[in-house]
Amino acid sequence: MVDEIERATVRAVARRLLPLVFGLYLVSLIDRVNLGFAALTMNQDLGLTPYTYSLGVAAFFIAYIPCEVPSNLILHRIGARRWIGRIAITWGLAAGAMALVSGERSFVLVRFLLGLSEAGLFPGLLLYLTYWFPTVYRTRVNAVMLLGIPASGALGGPLATSLMQLNGLLGLAGWQWMFLLEGLPSIVLGFVALRYLTERPASAAWLPTEQRVWLQTTLEREQAAVEAAHSRLSIWRALIDPRVLLLCTIYFAFGSTAYSLGYFLPLIVKGWGLSNFWVGWTIAIPEVIGIVAMLIGSYCADRFSDRRWSLAGLMVLCTIGFWGMGYFPAAMGAVIFVALTEIGSGIARPMFWTVPPTFLSRSAMAGAFGLITSFGNFGGIIGPIVIGWVKTTTGSFTGGLYYIAVVTLIAAIIFAAVPMRHRHLASPVAAE
Fold first, then answer.
1. Is pTM, for the whole model, over 0.85?
2. 3-class secondary structure for the chain?
3. CATH code assigned at 168
4. Residue at 209 is within a domain
């Protein structure tokens, strides 16, 4: 009977919340990385070099990073419904405003405003999911949201390059139409979030009483077990906890891989001799492979007790992928290495996010999630800047791609070197 209640409850919660969570994260990524497709023509229109373009990329994160932890603390205090809704509406407006940029200064300014508006969405959604799903489902649930990363390439690439075919309509460039039209879904989903997000299981009137009681009891029992095993950390102690700082260091590599691909892969693929239209469709191929890998890998990961070596191996796969992209920078066959990076990071990322909840209290997670994602965004600053600088000075993407390969290899070594006595890194259910 209990198993039937569990299955019915998890299905009901997933149907209610996951489509909206996935949609919010997907459109945020499209609004963030469509810049890489706009760059195919925008850079020339605005007179941007690869280096000045990378400064605009960095401006987003300069605004985003300092606001991550405060944003999550606000969400934990006032509730996800109002805060996530606010984030989505304001970032949609800022994303559409990218169509108004006219030069380097306005380009950097609007990118800064976009980062300021969107700050806290990703860690906020991660934190929100911990309010609703027991530990054993976390990898699969995280994977549903994180499918937005490969899906933003599989869907966003063809969509962006197709919208850019509107070039000249009503006197606007194709990249301007892309920014205007792709900003609208964010605003719509923001109002949907204000209407449909439920704060906690206790207020879920759409769940039958027995399911609501089971969910509350299960989540409270798991949290009590975590705090009994690791002691209850305050928000501020969690921010300096060695385990959290270790995860921050590792997550720097995830940010480096995701944003370097998001912002520069269209320009790299363009170098293979493809038209702007076919760049988007070509990028969709490894992204679809990444989606399939993430779904299969995340389903299997919830059945493994020791994930340390799995995570290390997946980061090595990313290393091979970036090395291959750098070694064959102008060859169509490099799409195979792009697929390897999508497979490695696609499976590893949702697995990674099962670790913090195994040793942090709810309030501590609010700050820790923000801090960890901030380090990922530092990778999002440094990676693209290195690639842009290397491309500007050498005329090739190779050196920058080798830099990302080194970063992912370091993350793999850290995973492998974590002593087995840190059971929270070895087993996602160690605290149960």
1. no
2. CHHHHHHHHHHHHHHHHHHHHHHHHHHHHHHHHHHHHHHHHHHHHHCCCHHHHHHHHHHHHHHHHHHHHHHHHHHHHHCHHHHHHHHHHHHHHHHHHHHHCCCHHHHHHHHHHHHHHHCCHHHHHHHHHHCCCCHHHHHHHHHHHHCHHHHHHHCHHHHHHHHHHHCCHHHCCHHHHHHHHHHHHHHHHHHHHHHHCCCCHHHCCCCCHHHHHHHHHHHHHHHHHHHHHHCCCCHHHHHHCHHHHHHHHHHHHHHHHHHHHHHHHHHHHHCCCCCHHHHHHHHHHHHHHHHHHHHHHHHHHCCCCCCHHHHHHHHHHHHHHHHHHHHCCCCHHHHHHHHHHHHHHHHHHHHHCCCHHHCCCHHHHHHHHHHHHHHHHHHHHHHHHHHHHHHHHHCCCHHHHHHHHHHHHHHHHHHHHCCCCCHHHHCCCCCC
3. 1.20.1250.20
4. no
